[in-house]
Amino acid sequence: MGVLQQTDVEIDPAPPIAKRLPDSRIFSGVTLDDPYAWLEDAADPEVIAYLKAENAFTDAVMAPTATLRETLYREIVGRVQRTDTRIPFQMGDVFYYTRTEDGRDYDILCRKRGGLEAPEEILLDLNTIAGEYLALGYYTPSY
Q: Mean pLDDT of all residues in the chain?
């Protein structure tokens, strides 16, 4: 394999290799081997060191694309409508919808009873419960 050039710095393109440890699990009577199960322990200093090495490798390999990535990011963000309301869907006399607000990362789930001119009720503001990362499965029909 060749060596990537970034100005005067040479980068070895070989990523760190995760060690393989024997481990198996039984699911529904089937034994599955998982030599990378040790990576599940987020508190293990070896896992942390391996992930830091992976991140350093990625940063080094991707460094030549930093300007392009920043340009693409700004273009995409510039086209995203940050304050928006999705089309409501009706169940009985209640209209359900989600909306977003500029400067906030997550959806706000809302409803209006009796009509679209009724006062808004916020059912769940995901921004108020979000930590560093939030994932919530909920159904929003798309028409």
A: 86
Phi, psi of 32 (to 5 degrees): -115, 130
Q: With CA atoms as reference, report the closest residue to 130 among 96, 100, 107, 103.
A: 107
CA 13, chain centre distance (Å)? 26
- CA pair distance 75, 10, nearest whole angstrom: 31
Residue 134's H or E segment, with its range, is: none
Write out pLDDT tens, residues 8-56. 556 567 899 999 999 998 989 999 999 999 999 988 999 999 999 999 9
Output the CA torsion 29→32→36→38 (10° steps).
Answer: 20
CA within 13 Å, CB half, 5? 2
